[in-house]
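#onboarding

Welcome to the new folks! Below is a worked example of what a typical request in this channel looks like: someone posts a single protein sequence, and someone else replies with the predicted structure as tokens. Don't worry about understanding the tokens yet, we'll cover that in week two.

Example request:
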Amino acid sequence: MPAAPSSLPTAAAVIALHDRLLACTGWPAQQPEPPAGEAWRWVQTNHRCNCLLWAEEDLARRTTVAEAEIAANKRAIDGHNQARNDATERIDELLLLALGLVDEASARSDAPQARVPAGARLNSETAGSMIDRLSILALKVHAMQAQTQRGDVDAAHLAASAVKLQRLQQQRQDLGGCYDALLADAAAGRAYFKVYRQFKMYNDPRYNPVLVQERQAGLMAR
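Example response:
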């Protein structure tokens, strides 16, 4: 039997988890136990990947370190981004399974088969991608909040940061409302979404043309 909307992760609960994790000492290097349920484990994993990405993106903008350090940041960004996308896809799989909207046997395949209610509309953005965006907005809210509390900037910077913080909070509230509405519509048979595989070709040595050329050149040089 498909899950009732009340049993699925709500936007308020997701936002609360994101904010709670950002407030945890040692996060994201140290991870607290996630809420019960596999979906929550992947929501937390997705948020951790975004937090690690955020830190590496800051480091990659440095201008006073060796180029090798920036290259290491860029490689770390690729790895965290792949893990983030994998977690997003896993969230979609689990939500769709709970809603009864995907064939369980195909859910983990490259072409999951949707079970589409008659007359239901297809939502282009998935619930998992909305949770991913809520995670990024949590990071933006957290970082902008810190800007409003700085003691080394002028009043204009603090005022501008406060305005941006308010806008970010509104964006997060709006997105959360859209996420809740999508799950409610999906549970009622009015809408559905799919598991979309990202197929990050640049991370796959079988598909990245530059890596293919490197491998072929190495074989020829032997």
